[in-house]
Write a sequence for this structure.
């Protein structure tokens, strides 16, 4: 069932279509024609409805901003739908085929991952007002699009050390760091059913053991109730901005190897140890080399895919309405 917001969007869309030119009325809500395929206003709205609902909630009291944001979302949806049709046309024009068995395997995998079983799939399709045949066609088309996109970015992508170093030099602002500490933390939660001071007392006992030489990692693994318990309370390198103020103020006053006192908040009590410190600066290339390589790899794949779509556009008939 459509939400009230989605009904509003559909109503506005209907009004816009009714108010459109005579040509728009004749083509019955057609947004784009790609070769022999038609992309309708409804197809576009199917892609954007959820995003538009969110935009209405966020910018409902700013009509000019809302109009701009919705226009951007719709334009992006149209672009993706056009690319999809270009690729499907390329598949057909190139004489490619897919064995039915391959599609069936993908359908079964989709059912397992998304629906659990076929019965749930069929019930969901009925609720959405669609059919199994349409579902099968969507799976087939998605497989084709993904396969041809992959084919046209195939071939080894080699990112040379020179490219990595050049990117690093040109984007150093991306790798700036604030003052950081390498931190371990023990967290004991303040539980409503416990007597007042229970968490603080336990932290004080833990701190006493640490000062006697107990391993911080072992104590954290045994006692901590924080998310990093299994890692011995290890938070790795953290910026000051990551921590709540009480913790940040204490942690960044410590020298490597030192323990904090017990830090009490309404929710929890904490004991921290700083293992290392480093001042603000730029991360060394060695620390970000893998990250840069992944970025450049993604950029090259995007470039190849963009070139593929441009080639298809040049030999296709695309009409916007």
């Amino acid at each position: 069932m459509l939400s009230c917001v989605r009904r509003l969007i559909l109503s506005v869309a209907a009004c816009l279509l009714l108010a459109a030119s005579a040509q728009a009325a004749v083509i019955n809500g057609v947004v784009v024609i790609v070769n022999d395929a038609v992309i309708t206003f409804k197809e576009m709205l199917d892609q954007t409805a959820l995003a538009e609902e969110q935009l209405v909630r966020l910018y409902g009291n700013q009509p000019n901003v809302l109009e701009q944001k919705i226009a951007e979302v719709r334009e992006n949806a149209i672009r993706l739908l056009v690319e999809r049709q270009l690729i499907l046309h390329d598949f057909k024009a190139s004489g490619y085929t897919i064995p039915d068995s391959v599609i069936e395997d993908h359908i079964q995998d989709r059912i397992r991952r998304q629906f659990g079983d076929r019965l749930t799939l069929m019930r969901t399709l009925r609720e959405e007002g669609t059919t199994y045949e349409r579902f099968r066609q969507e799976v087939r088309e998605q497989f084709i699009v993904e396969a041809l996109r992959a084919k046209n970015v195939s071939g080894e992508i080699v990112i040379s050390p020179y490219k990595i170093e050049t990117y690093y030099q040109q984007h150093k602002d991306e790798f700036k760091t604030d003052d950081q500490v390498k931190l371990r933390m023990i967290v004991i939660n303040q539980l409503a059913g416990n007597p007042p001071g229970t968490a603080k007392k336990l932290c004080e006992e833990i701190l006493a053991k640490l000062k006697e030489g107990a391993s911080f990692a072992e104590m954290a693994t045994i006692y901590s109730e924080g998310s990093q318990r299994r890692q011995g309370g290890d938070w790795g390198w953290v910026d000051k901005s990551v921590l709540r103020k009480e913790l940040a103020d204490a942690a960044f006053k410590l020298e490597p190897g030192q323990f904090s006192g017990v830090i009490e908040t309404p929710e929890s009590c904490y004991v921290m140890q700083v293992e290392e410190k480093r001042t603000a600066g730029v991360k060394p290339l060695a620390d970000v080399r893998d990250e840069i390589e992944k970025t450049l790899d993604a950029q090259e794949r995007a470039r190849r895919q963009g070139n593929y779509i441009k080639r298809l556009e040049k030999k296709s008939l695309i009409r916007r309405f």
